[in-house]
Amino acid sequence: MSGPKGARGRRFENALDETAARMNASVDFDRRLLPHDVAGSIAHAEMLAARGLITADDARAITLGLRKVEARLVAGELAWDAALEDVHMNVEARLIDEIGDAGRRLHTGRSRNDQVATDLRLYARAASQRLVAAIDDLRGAIAVQARAHVDTLMPGYTHLQRAQPVRLAHHLLAYAAMLERDRGRLTDAARRADVSPLGSGALAGTTLPIDREHVARSLGFASVT
Q1: How far is CA 156 from CA 168, 172, 175, 177, in A?
Q2: For 22, 28, 179, 196, which has the most beta carbons within 10 A of its beta carbon?
């Protein structure tokens, strides 16, 4: 939890030096994880309620509160606070401000470690899928141009010297082949990211009776770590 002195407010009497605080803060770039952080927390809260670890009322309050916090951050109605260091602490602090003590129960059975790992996997999976779709569109456009230039001749080069006459279609399809390799790498990255780490805790799980598969299904993961 955070306090008036930031994320370390309960452990130190003095605030962190401003220069060190700016250096440690990651919120300027990890705010892009916001939708994934919120989705992961909602799935976690729903699982906690299903397992009887928090009440259904708390789960509903957490879900509605998270959605409201996300909308207000996106709209610029709430400012990102570098003193809270990262997207996770910013969301959690705003949630507690919004719904009170129920927000403090969200982190039950969860470590910041597996929360961050889950956010990153959700982000990587979604980003890979978007890039694959963009590559498919680009390869389609290249194929259209290649068909239109089957009879267009151009010089082919080796070592910056003209070597052989080739068709422009041949040259264009070389880029389509390069993009196909990139597509394969991204597809593999998405597959590798499609495994839920939530519930792993800091390193060795938790003694609480959580349901990791429940959360994985809610987030669309293929399996758990």
Answers
A1: 9, 12, 14, 17
A2: 196
Residue 45's φ and ψ, nearest 5 degrees, are -65, -40
Task: Say how many Å lie between the first and final Cα of the chain, rounded.
Answer: 27
Cα distance between residue 18 and residue 21, in whole Å? 5
Q: What Å distances lie between residue 158 and 151, 173, 176, 223, CA to CA?
A: 22, 17, 20, 48
Contact 124, 94 (CB under 8 A): no
The mean pLDDT of the chain is 93
Separation of alpha carbons 180 and 200, rounded Å: 35
Query: With 60 as the cut, is the pLDDT of residue 65 above it?
Result: yes
Q: What is the pTM of this model?
A: 0.86
Distance CA 167, CA 191 (A): 37
DSSP summary character for residue 152: -
Cβ atoms of 44 and 105 within 8 Å: the answer is: no
Question: Using CA atoms in the order 107, 109, 114, 118, what is the torsion angle rounded to 10 degrees?
Answer: -70
Measured CA to CA, the distance from residue 10 to residue 4 in angstroms comes to: 9
Write the DSSP symbol of residue 84: G
What was the pLDDT predicted at 15?
76
List alpha helices for the chain, DSSP H: 18-24, 27-30, 34-50, 56-75, 87-99, 112-148, 168-193, 212-218
Quote the distance between the C-alpha of residue 94 and its chain's center: 20
Encoded amino acid at 182, one letter = D
